[in-house]
Design goal:
Blueprint lengths: L15 H29 L5 H46 L2
Helix pairs in contact: 1-2
Length: 97
């Protein structure tokens, strides 16, 4: 079944584009956090410490990804709420005509 994209589906989910962008941002933040954590710990150790640097890298990746995930979820929820309020305003203005 083909749907017309100009009609309202009534779904509260944000469009696919912003969701994909949020996932990409979370992955990039995780990679950056991991690289920063690994490099910072590797620079501080005199004898290399690959296990410690790897562990801190993983911890940095998790913390960075979690932080960006929180912001992404809040942004997507705000976007969905804004779209719902715009839809309600449009329906109300059409019903008053």
């Amino acid at each position: 079944m083909v749907t017309d994209p100009t009609t309202d589906s009534g779904s509260a989910a944000p469009p696919v584009g912003p969701r994909v962008l949020a996932v990409v941002a979370i992955v990039v933040a995780g990679l950056c956090g991991g690289l920063i954590g690994y490099a910072f710990t590797d620079l501080q150790c005199d004898d290399g410490c690959p296990a410690l640097a790897g562990g801190v890298g993983v911890l940095g990746a998790v913390i960075a990804a979690a932080g960006v995930a929180v912001v992404a979820v809040l942004t997507l929820r705000a976007m969905a709420e804004w779209q719902a309020s715009e839809r309600a305003k449009r329906v109300e203005s059409e019903s008053q005509r």
